[in-house]
Design brief:
- By secondary structure, the chain is of the alpha/beta class.
- It has one domain: NAD(P)-binding Rossmann-like Domain (Rossmann fold).
- Helices cover 38% and strands 19% of the residues.
- It is built from 11 helices and 15 strands.
- It has a 7-stranded parallel β-sheet, with helices on both faces.
- Helix 5 links the parallel strand 4 and strand 5.
- The longest helix is centred in the N-terminal third of the chain and has 22 residues.
- 50% of the residues are buried.
Length: 347
């Protein structure tokens, strides 16, 4: 009888974590999820993931939930030693660019220290198990804003042809402003790389663009498309922070993130780093996204413009997918921008 593989997923009630639970459960894996619903504490009722945990419990067959705080080092060490998972997908984080400045200790302890807890736990007991870390494009700080750009009617874009495909992994991460969130995630990102190089462990940092999908507890401080759709549906006022609403993000569906998880599991590398987003074709500005949702939902959004951008925020960010596609040519996006907007609008 074939041995069932075991995957450990942190942040298992969040957007990417819950999609990964479903994805690997459907493929017959033994799935263990760690999540203590700290999003409720961070973001209030909009961030509560209780509904998503209940959905997973009802819809999966091989999923076990564990209410563990990833800052609890002894609990993490003991859990990983007991389970010895074949694959670790680390999604848990304090994900808000803005909230970090008000709760710096929580932000760093969750993002940086929590990641170190799992890296060391894995090194001690199952060092050959691939370790996948959901990093962020915020590790680049505001360096992408140094790229020459043009202002178009509804968006900013890159001015020079050589920048057309977007930001490469060679973009520097120092001598810039990150936000405290970006700094704590950069610390974790570097530590994941270091464990890969120093201990020759199979690790990868996935520097995500805007991650989206149907199971996102979007809140004002986190979850661009999910919260924008929610505000449009419920008539909530929506604040645009600076850049005339022409700031651009590329969007990737949570399912497409999970298909890369599996691709890396099959062919892991040590200390890999990839930008993981929707690329040029899945890019959209805030103004363009508002128009799309207003048309799809049939309601006008109550927009308030704040003439001050978020500290360290990107003006135009598109993930260059050249490296990840070169290393994993079998992987590609299944969700284009139209399909993403259709799903988020109707969920």
């Amino acid at each position: 009888m074939t041995k069932t593989h075991t995957v450990l997923i942190t942040g298992s009630s969040g957007l990417i974590g819950s999609e990964a639970v479903t994805y690997f459960d459907q493929r017959g894996w033994d799935v263990h999820g760690i999540d203590n619903n700290m999003r409720l504490d961070f973001f209030g009722p909009d961030g509560d993931t209780t509904w998503n945990l209940q959905r997973l419990r009802e819809s999966t067959r091989g999923f076990t939930h564990h209410d563990i705080d990833i800052r609890d080092r002894e609990a993490v060490l003991a859990f990983v030693a007991d389970q010895r998972p074949d694959l670790i997908i680390h999604c848990a984080s304090q994900p808000s660019h803005d909230l970090a400045k008000d709760r710096p200790f929580d932000d760093f302890d969750v993002n940086a220290v929590g990641t170190l807890n799992f890296l060391e736990a894995v090194r001690r007991t199952c060092p050959t198990s691939p370790f996948i870390f959901m990093s962020t494009n915020k590790v680049y700080g505001d360096v992408p804003n140094e790229i020459a750009r043009v202002e178009l009617e509804t968006r900013y874009d890159y001015a020079n042809p050589e920048d057309y495909d977007g930001i490469k992994e060679t973009c520097r991460i120092d001598s810039c402003t990150h936000s405290l969130f970006g700094a704590s995630k950069a610390a974790a990102d570097l530590m994941v790389q270091e464990y890969g190089r120093y201990f020759d462990m199979p690790t990868v940092c996935l520097r995500g663009g805007c991650l989206t999908g149907p199971n996102h507890s979007g809140a004002e401080l986190h979850g661009f498309l999910a919260y924008l759709a929610l505000a449009t549906k419920e008539g909530r006022p929506y604040r645009i922070y600076g850049y005339k609403g022409k700031q651009v993000r590329d969007n990737i569906h949570s399912y497409d993130v999970c298909t890369f998880f599996e691709a890396f599991w099959k062919r892991p590398r040590a200390a890999a780093v990839y930008n993981l987003g929707g690329g040029r074709d899945n890019s959209v500005s805030m103004l363009e996204a508002i128009d799309r949702f207003q048309e799809a939902i049939g309601k006008k959004l109550d927009v308030e413009y704040v003439d001050e951008n978020r500290v360290g925020d990107h003006i135009c960010y598109i993930s260059d997918l050249s490296l990840i596609r070169n290393d994993y040519p079998e992987w590609d996006l299944e969700y284009d921008l139209d399909r993403i907007f259709d799903e988020v609008s109707s969920s």
